[in-house]
Structures are given as C-alpha cells and as structure tokens.
C-alpha cells in the first residue's frame, strides 16, 4: 500500500530568480470547491502571473495563467506528485523582474519554488475514513462515549439526545470500522448497531 500524505496547514516560500520574485503558497484542500477557493484566496491581482495546480486523488488541474504552455502549472503539479502528496493545492505567484527566463528557466522556477515550499511544509498521513450513526440507550451512553474516546482516529462529530438515549455521528478510519462496529455491538449487548455510510 502506498503511503499518501497531505499538508497539516498552509505553507509559504519565496525566492528571487533573475530579478523575478516567486512566492509559493501550498495548503490542504478537501475537495474541488475548496481547491478553487484556496486558489482565489492566494492569487494576487497585482502580480503578473498566478499559476497553480491541485491534486485530489485521481483528479487534478493546473493552469499557466499566461505563461507559455506547460511551463508553470504542470511543473507545480509535478512538485506535488513528486512528494506523493494528495488533497493539496499550490499557487505560485510571479512578479516579473524584466529578465526573460526562457521555457526551461520558467519550468525550473515554478516547479522549484513549489517543491521548496512543499518540502518545508509539515505533512501528515492521509487516512480514508467512514462515517456512521449509532443510537444507544442512556444506560450504555457513558461507557460507549469513553470507549470511543479511547480509540485513535475515531471521532464523535455530533450527539443528539432523545427521550430514551442518544444518537451519535461517528467517523473512523476505514480499516478500523469493523472493530468499532464489533465493539459497539458488544458494549450494548446487540441492542444497537452502527450504520456506516461512505
């Protein structure tokens, strides 16, 4: 199994290449809408170019924003892929310094600035999770809550109280879901079962 990583938080990096200033901003993104929002938020309208790329699993996009085709967005995507990152967007902004870099120079500048930014960024393993709902009686609630809290990677997102108990919205790593399900069934002596959704 290939280890997939994403960024913990937004990271930035800046370098000057032949009087042109390049600033890279990288960050974790949950979906395509978040990637578009990130790009819009990090792009500087006063700059000459705001080139970008993002990867979300098998989906990806990149844009050269007026630079010659293939010299900016694609090298940024290559920097993301080169570090086995997923659910990541990168914007590299350029202020032109008056010296032409040529195609090879642009590829190295955009790809290199993105790679430098990503190398410096804190990373975390990307774990596939599943969500589910679980209802239990008040008599089982305290024990269920304490056992769920003790499990690594398991989170209770919402608790809704009813007349006879509570409904819990739970997320867990996909690989742990069968164990969580078994534990909850055992704790309630089969009275309650979790229903997983993707």
Automatic annotation (TrEMBL):
<protein>
    <submittedName>
        <fullName>IMPACT family protein</fullName>
    </submittedName>
</protein>
<feature type="domain" description="UPF0029">
    <location>
        <begin position="135"/>
        <end position="191"/>
    </location>
</feature>
<dbReference type="InterPro" id="IPR020569">
    <property type="entry name" value="UPF0029_Impact_CS"/>
</dbReference>
<dbReference type="InterPro" id="IPR001498">
    <property type="entry name" value="Impact_N"/>
</dbReference>
<dbReference type="InterPro" id="IPR023582">
    <property type="entry name" value="Impact"/>
</dbReference>
<dbReference type="InterPro" id="IPR036956">
    <property type="entry name" value="Impact_N_sf"/>
</dbReference>
<dbReference type="InterPro" id="IPR015269">
    <property type="entry name" value="UPF0029_Impact_C"/>
</dbReference>
<comment type="similarity">
    <text>Belongs to the IMPACT family.</text>
</comment>
<dbReference type="InterPro" id="IPR020568">
    <property type="entry name" value="Ribosomal_Su5_D2-typ_SF"/>
</dbReference>
<dbReference type="Pfam" id="PF01205">
    <property type="entry name" value="Impact_N"/>
</dbReference>
<feature type="domain" description="Impact N-terminal">
    <location>
        <begin position="18"/>
        <end position="117"/>
    </location>
</feature>
<dbReference type="InterPro" id="IPR035647">
    <property type="entry name" value="EFG_III/V"/>
</dbReference>
<dbReference type="Pfam" id="PF09186">
    <property type="entry name" value="DUF1949"/>
</dbReference>
């Amino acid at each position: 199994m290939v280890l997939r990583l994403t960024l913990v938080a937004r990271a930035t990096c800046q370098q000057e290449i032949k009087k042109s200033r390049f600033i890279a901003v990288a960050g974790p993104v949950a979906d395509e809408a978040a990637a578009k929002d990130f790009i819009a938020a990090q792009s500087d309208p006063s700059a000459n170019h705001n080139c970008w790329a993002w990867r979300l699993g098998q989906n990806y996009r990149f844009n050269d924003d007026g630079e010659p085709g293939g010299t900016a967005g694609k090298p940024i995507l290559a920097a993301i892929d080169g570090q086995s990152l997923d659910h990541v967007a990168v914007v590299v902004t350029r202020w032109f310094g008056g010296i032409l870099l040529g195609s090879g120079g642009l590829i190295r500048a955009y790809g290199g600035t993105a790679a430098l930014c990503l190398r410096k960024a804190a990373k975390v393993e990307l774990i596939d999770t599943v969500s589910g709902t679980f209802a239990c009686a008040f008599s089982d609630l305290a024990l269920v809550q304490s056992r769920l809290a003790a499990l690594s990677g398991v989170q209770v997102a919402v608790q809704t109280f009813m007349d006879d108990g509570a409904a819990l919205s739970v997320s867990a790593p996909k690989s742990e879901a069968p164990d969580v399900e078994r534990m909850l069934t055992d704790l309630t002596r089969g009275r309650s079962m979790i229903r997983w959704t993707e």
